[in-house]
Amino acid sequence: QVQLVQSGAEVKKPGASVKVSCKASGYTFTNYLIHWVRQAPGQRLEWMGWINGGNGNTKYSQKFQDKVTITRDTSATTAYMELSSLRFEDTAVYYCAREYSSSTGRAFDIWGQGTLVTVSS
Amino acid sequence: EIVMTQSPATLSVSPGERATLSCRASQSVSSNLAWYQQKPGQAPRLLIYGASTRASGIPASFSGSGSGTEFTLTISSLQSEDFAVYYCQQYTNWPYTFGQGTKLEIK
Fold first, then answer.
1. Nearest-CB residue to B31 (from A97, A105, A113)
2. Residues 18-37 of A with CB under 8 A from B
3. What per-residue confidence (pLDDT) applies to B14?
4. Distance from B76 to chain A by nearest Cα, in Å?
5. Which of A14, A24, A94, B97 has the smallest set of CB atoms within 10 Å of its CB?
6. Chain A neighbors of B92, CB-CB under 8 A
7. B71/B6 Cα distance (integer angstroms)
8. Mind telling me how many Å the CA of A113 is from chain B's nearest CA?
9. Share in percent of chain A as helix, strand, coil (round to 5)
10. pLDDT digits (tens, 9 = 90+) for B73-94
11. For the segment B29-69, what is each residue's pLDDT rounded down to a tens digit?
12. How far apart are CA B30 and CA A11, in angstroms?
């Protein structure tokens, strides 16, 4: 079935970097965008950026422009999100999500299970 | 950045009754709006996109309406599994933005 499976929870120190993976299966990886969304404790969902699974083009939220790098490996049908210079406030669950697009609209139709990143000294 | 505001923050409804959730955009998003359901410890689940199109596998008890800046999600007859947090999201402009959520709880 169509699914996105993310890598496991991470604990990092302030100033470190973290790289989260998102393995796609059950569909043609190169035909879709993959988005990254984060959810800090008690906060709303926050869009970070996307990558085009086909050509590798990316788009980032201005808030995360200098902090996040999204890449993909088509042979592994996997997208990656690397977050640098971690701060305590980066503690959150990070989700990847596939963008579905049709004549009637777009949305994130398939989500990964989420990866908890904890920043702690 | 388009700000999405949902109301109410918490809605208490009895099973079998109807629930109406609202979402307002700070500027027009046309019909570029989606609704998601999230249960504790789970990823969001797509319910509605294009303001009113149900996603695959979503029961007809869920319906969306609105355009421009005012949107509504209606659940016609609440089942126990419907009690969750609901988010709206606009995808007219980057950054895509979400509302703060409405928690639907059992009365």
1. A105
2. 35
3. 95
4. 23
5. A14
6. none
7. 9
8. 6
9. 10, 55, 35
10. 999 999 999 999 999 999 999 9
11. 999 999 999 999 999 999 999 999 999 999 999 999 999 99
12. 41
